[in-house]
Design a protein that fits this description.
It is a single chain. The protein is α+β, with helices and mostly antiparallel strands and 183 residues long. The protein contains five helices and twelve strands. The chain has helices spanning 6-15, 19-23, 29-37, 83-86, 102-109, and strands at residues 41-42, 44-50, 53-59, 63-67, 70-77, 91-96, 122-124, 130-132, 137-149, 152-163, 171-174, 177-180. The strands form three sheets. A seven-stranded antiparallel β-sheet has the order 3-2-6-9-10-5-4. The protein has a three-stranded antiparallel β-sheet with strand order 1-11-12, with helices on one face.
């Protein structure tokens, strides 16, 4: 008796659905949202100076890209109210929020909100970038590239200066909610 060839075994396996393929779903926006609700992410607010005043939005897509030179990236919806300003800004601010700032994160995530009115505490920082007070850390960055990515744009920016002396624990986004970090 001859053992089946590896090709015959692979063909046989490919013709019968695996348990994994019976449970999987085709790619869709809902599948992506469902998967990333299970991924805990840090919460940041990105700001920029606009012609009509400051703009900002909550971002959970902030990523460190490179240490040399120091580069970060984040995604922003091409249809968001902040995109027209971000699309032309030379400099942006990035703010890492603490767990005590869930209300601030929600405010900057809410469409149509006056994000820079009281009780938001901020000041004009280097390069005219709005800098939020009371955050765990902040950066001012020079925009290096804007890359189209579906219904979003990926912004890559080079860090020019910042501060990381804020006290507290980070705010996280998980399962559609803002949460604190637990040991």
């Amino acid at each position: 008796m001859t053992a089946p060839s590896p090709l015959a075994s692979a063909a046989s396996a490919a013709s019968s659905p695996s348990p994994l393929s019976r449970l999987s779903r085709p790619a869709s926006p809902d599948l992506l949202r469902s998967v990333f609700r299970r991924h805990a992410a840090g919460v940041a607010v990105v700001t920029a100076r606009g012609e009509a005043g400051p703009v900002g939005f909550t971002a959970t897509s902030l990523t460190s890209v490179s240490a040399e030179p120091p580069l970060i990236s984040f995604g922003v919806g091409a249809g968001s109210s902040s995109w027209p300003t971000i699309s032309h800004a030379e400099h942006i601010g990035v703010h890492i929020l603490g767990e005590h700032q869930a209300e601030l994160a929600a405010l900057f995530a809410r469409s149509g909100a006056d994000r820079f009115a009281a009780p938001t505490s901020w000041r004009e920082g280097p390069e005219g970038v709005p800098v939020l007070d009371g955050v765990l850390a902040w950066l001012v960055c020079r925009v290096a590239a804007r890359v189209p990515a579906g219904d979003h744009r990926i912004v890559i920016a080079e860090v020019t200066l910042g501060e990381s002396a804020g006290a507290g624990r980070p705010l996280l986004y998980h399962q559609g909610r803002f949460n604190g970090l637990r040991d």
